[in-house]
Give the backbone structure.
Amino acid sequence: MSLLKSIIRYFEQRKIIKEIYDDLGNHKEVLLAERLEVFAEKATPKFAEIGLKNWNGKYIWFSDFNEYGVKHVIEYHVFKGFGGSFSYGNCFDFVPTISNGKWINHKTDKSTKNLFFNRFEGWQKSLDRDSLINPDRISTINGDKFNASLDKVLSTNLPKLQKWFNANETIEQNIDTLIAMTKNPPTEIGTRIISFEYLLAFLYWNKSNYPEAKNWIQKHFEKRIDESEKKMILERLNINPNS
């Protein structure tokens, strides 16, 4: 670790320790029921303003599918240690996933899934920079902090979300964005469950560009070694691996 990085990490740790001490006397965790009440009051109307008018009553907000089979999604994620944050992205009505050896389609409200997964910008940058401070972290240590941090995260990110959703409406737009992200991938926690390459394979398949679908699914397989899933995917895409 460089000297500058060590200094930054030292001050980040001091800031976190100070917050912990400040919270010791005012600790009343915001549990699920209260979180949902606040989300209903604050998050749901804000997300509806940018087109995500559907809410599953818990942690997922989404638009209707557009004419291209693309649905915009926002999801809340619970962290360890009294906090959470949001991801955003797209669901596609023609991109299935595998669970316990079975295909799962994502064509209904109930099956909505953030397939093209992106973290809110501040959260992602904290990973890219290996920083302890996540500016998009929503504190659940008490009600006041929960409301204040949620308000801040929403006001900071809503314009960015609107811009991203507008730029990723069509299949071609999603392909362009995904290809760009394969060239400059974000820092991950572990392995991305639904890879950019997997999505690209199905997006090209939807456009009847079967050579590119095969190209991208082979790139996906370079990161995966589950032979049973590989067989299922090739059959689904009607690809002969030996051709």
Observations:
- Residues 195-243 form one domain.
- Residues 225 and 231 are 11 Å apart (CA to CA).
- The two ends are 48 Å apart (CA to CA).
- The longest strand covers residues 70-79.
